[in-house]
Design goal:
Blueprint lengths: L27 H15 L3 H11 L9 H10 L7
Helix pairs in contact: 1-2
């Protein structure tokens, strides 16, 4: 009595994924290269570095690559320079 009958499927029908379900690739090396290239342009001017990091926050995902960002800034010695 409780048998499930398969519903017919149209041929040629494509299953679309929702945009929220599409995942972005995790690419810490690309993130690192983007940050370092921007910081190289700023040299040792802390105001320029601050402006760059603030502006790049719109394009680069700091939440996803937070650990990588701190490795670049602190372990890389960029913030430790006098």
């Amino acid at each position: 009595m409780s048998q499930k009958v398969e519903k017919p499927v149209l041929s040629g029908q494509r299953i679309k994924t929702r945009k929220r379900d599409e995942k972005e690739r995790y690419d810490p090396t690309g993130f690192r290269d983007a940050i370092i290239s921007g910081l190289d342009k700023c040299s040792n001017d802390f105001e320029a570095i601050s402006r760059y990091l603030d502006g790049a926050g719109n394009k680069l995902d700091y939440r996803r690559y937070g650990e990588c960002l701190f490795d670049i800034l602190i372990a890389g010695g960029i913030l430790g320079k006098p």
